[in-house]
Design a protein that fits this description.
It is a single chain. The protein is about 50% helix and about 20% strand. It has 3 domains: about 190 residues, Aminohydrolase, N-terminal nucleophile (Ntn) domain (Glutamine Phosphoribosylpyrophosphate, subunit 1, domain 1, 4-Layer Sandwich); about 110 residues, no CATH class; about 80 residues. By secondary structure, it is of the alpha+beta class. Helix 3 crosses helix 5. The protein is built from 12 helices and 14 strands. The longest helix has about 40 residues.
Length: about 425
């Protein structure tokens, strides 16, 4: 996991990220990862990576530097154009990822999902045996069907724009071949009915083709200035992998500063402390409070009717009428409450912070970005939560005139002993 933030006003955009990287399913954490890079040696554009630090087993640090060489000083009119070029770079398979590696990835996804479902089925069987001392075939089949149906309901069927109809048809053929082999291998003698197999096939297709991204996907944030942009902009994406020659990705956010929008604070990955700072309340506390109040307003009409001696004496028809009226007004009161709380948060916290961010000079933007990442790291350190945010904080400020400027940057080497690195930095490419 990680904590990253972009803070923009009309003058510049500040980017900050921690250095923690989690491996081996969270069992090991290193605080030396590089997640922030300049996307061009010559133009005011940068990129941050969060989530999975690799793409098809290739480190994003390597990918960014290969892309930077291919960009070779070329200017794009907008930040969105830089982002699309980066997406096209991956989609066109400039990294020469073989079909075998792409198929291996599909194999891993299918195998992982089928294994999860099988484990859940076996857990439910075990619970049934412990409860009743046995389990018959009919009950086994019923459990299998229920688990598969429940699992299917967790997946979105929303199509992604990155896949054309032709590419979807091709991917489905590839998936179908692998699915049949792995289903037989993993489920073996489990009592699957024809409808169960059909639903399992649908689950796999949805997981790979539709708007469903696994926990190991990557987040890409590209920010700065295009050649035609006076104010900074930011574009972010979810990226998973190449699947049958097509990149699975989704555009997440596109935000830009304008004459009407003076400032923006955009957190990525672990963002709870940034939200707390900006909104004045912890988002988890806010979620709990709203959920609790919603249940109160939802249930109190029935509680009043049941516990009121006078109301209990009424006929059912009248009771139902009163209950309906109570429900109507309790919903209205709760909606009014949410609206007022949202307005209060916006007017007394969010807008006040953004109004100050809108006039901050570049050095203060950088200090604020670093402080907010530090806040998340500190919260992790003083609680029992795993320290998935930590290490040195890399900070950069990008402005139209000065370009990409490092404010704070870690090196795995001593800069004073490696002058040749800095001498060679601009010698490998020629600006077009």
């Amino acid at each position: 996991m990680t904590s990253e933030i972009a803070i923009m006003n009309k003058e510049a955009v500040a980017l900050a990220t921690d250095s923690a990287v989690t491996i081996n399913e969270g069992k090991k954490i290193y605080n030396s990862a590089n997640k922030l890079f300049s996307l061009s040696k010559y133009n005011p554009i940068g990129i941050m990576i969060y989530g999975n630090a690799t793409f098809m087993s290739i480190p994003y640090e390597t990918i960014v530097k290969v892309f930077r060489s291919e960009l070779n000083g070329e200017c794009c009119k907008k930040v969105d154009d830089y982002a699309q070029k980066f997406i096209n770079f991956l989609n066109d398979n400039k990294l020469k990822i073989s079909n075998e590696e792409q198929n291996n990835y599909i194999d891993i996804v299918i195998g992982s999902l089928l294994t999860q479902i099988k484990q859940k089925i076996e857990e439910e069987w075990e619970n049934e045996i412990q409860k009743n001392g046995k389990i018959d075939l009919d009950k086994s089949k019923k459990i299998v069907s229920i688990i598969i149906t429940n699992f299917a309901d967790t997946f979105s069927n929303q199509e992604l724009e990155c896949f054309s109809k032709e590419s979807i048809d091709s991917i489905k053929k590839t998936i179908d071949k692998m699915f049949k082999k792995l289903l037989e291998k993993i489920f073996q003698d489990l009592p699957l009915q024809a409808e169960d197999k059909k639903k399992l096939s649908e689950i796999i297709n949805k997981a790979i083709i539709c708007d469903n991204f696994p926990s190991w996907h990557s987040g890409i944030v590209i920010a700065g200035f295009g050649e035609d942009e006076i104010f900074p902009a930011i574009a972010s994406f979810r990226i998973e992998s190449l699947i049958d020659g097509k990149l699975k990705y989704k555009k997440e956010k596109m935000e830009n500063i304008s004459t009407k929008n003076n400032a923006a604070i955009i957190p990525f990955a672990q963002s709870e402390m940034v939200s707390t700072f900006i909104e004045g309340v912890d988002p988890n506390y806010q979620k709990f409070k709203r959920s609790y109040l919603e249940n109160i307003f939802k249930n109190y009409p029935e509680i009043i009717i049941k516990n009121s001696k006078k109301l209990n004496k009424l006929e059912k028809k009248n009771k139902d009428l009163i209950h309906s009226e109570f429900n109507k007004w309790s919903k209205q009161i709760y909606e009014d409450y949410k609206k007022e709380m949202t307005n209060f948060t916006r007017d007394n916290h969010v807008n006040q912070v953004l109004s100050v961010v809108g006039i901050l000079p570049k050095d203060e933007l950088a200090a604020m970005a670093e402080s907010l990442v530090n806040l998340t790291s500190f919260k992790r350190r003083v609680t029992m939560a795993q320290e998935t945010v930590g290490g040195p904080i890399d900070v950069a400020v990008i402005s139209k005139g000065d370009g990409f400027i490092w404010i704070s940057r870690k090196h795995y080497f001593k800069p004073e002993l490696n002058h040749q690195f800095f001498d060679n930095y601009f010698r490998t490419e020629g600006k077009k």
